[in-house]
């Protein structure tokens, strides 16, 4: 489960409340959409998928983001089993995007600004291999692009330390439960969202304002006033 030691009691209350409100639909697994004509798909893991889903969904050219699990060997894992850190899976997102609007390179670079890719098996208070950073590739061209973007970000010294993100061939993404989809937007006042997820989203808005959909560009500008 998500952890944040300073607010552990508050989070236990929050998650207990949310769990109590879950319906059969909430607990059911989401479905992956069919690719639209001209659409492409990319998959990343960068810590909690709540913030990563929101951050990447705000990019112009991104049509849909599905939270799920990837990188492991266990078929059809649940959130609870992934949290045991025994499945090999990491919380991941699958991004459906229009390459005529945003390139795979630009999307990948945004991914590196949407989380901290320099911490091994950890994102802020969340620790373990299920929170590791992974950039998945579907062909040799994408692998080369990811490696070039990593070199670019490292050379730009945006981070004090070098990127430790895994670069792995994509195999499969298992969609997460419905209640994880769009979680950031649905629970904006939760402690975890406010203190852990929101700073990541705001960080991406600031770093890649030129890539945002117009409504989020306006929000990014407003937050700087």
Main β-sheet, in a few words? 6 strands, mixed
Distance between the termini: 35 Å
What's the total count of β strands? 8
- Beta-sheet strand percentage? 15-25%
Could you tell me the mean pLDDT? Answer: 91
CATH class: Alpha Beta
- The CATH architecture designation is 2-Layer Sandwich
Quaternary structure of the protein: single chain
According to CATH, the fold-level topology is Peptide Methionine Sulfoxide Reductase, Chain A
- The SS-based structural class is alpha+beta
Approximate shape:
globular
Number of structural domains: 1
Integer-rounded radius of gyration: 17 Å
In which order are the strands of the major sheet placed?
Answer: 7-6-1-3-2-8
The ordered H/E elements are: HHEHEHEHEEEHEEHHH
The CATH superfamily name is Peptide methionine sulphoxide reductase MsrA
Describe this structure in words.
The protein has 225 residues and is of the alpha+beta class. It has a single domain, classed as Peptide Methionine Sulfoxide Reductase, Chain A. It is built from 9 helices and 8 strands. The strands form 2 sheets. A 6-stranded mixed β-sheet has the order 7-6-1-3-2-8. A two-stranded antiparallel sheet has the order 4-5. Strand 6, helix 6 and strand 7 form a beta-alpha-beta unit. Helix 3 packs parallel to helix 8 and helix 5 crosses helix 6. The longest helix has 17 residues. The chain is globular and about 45 Å long.
Q: What is the fold's blueprint, element by element?
A:
Blueprint: H1 8-21, H2 24-27, E1 40-46, H3 49-57, E2 62-70, H4 79-83, E3 90-97, H5 104-113, E4 122-123, E5 126-127, E6 133-137, H6 140-156, E7 166-169, E8 173-175, H7 183-186, H8 191-207, H9 214-224
Parallel strand pairs: 6-7
Antiparallel strand pairs: 1-3, 1-6, 2-3, 2-8, 4-5
Helix pairs in contact: 3-8, 5-6
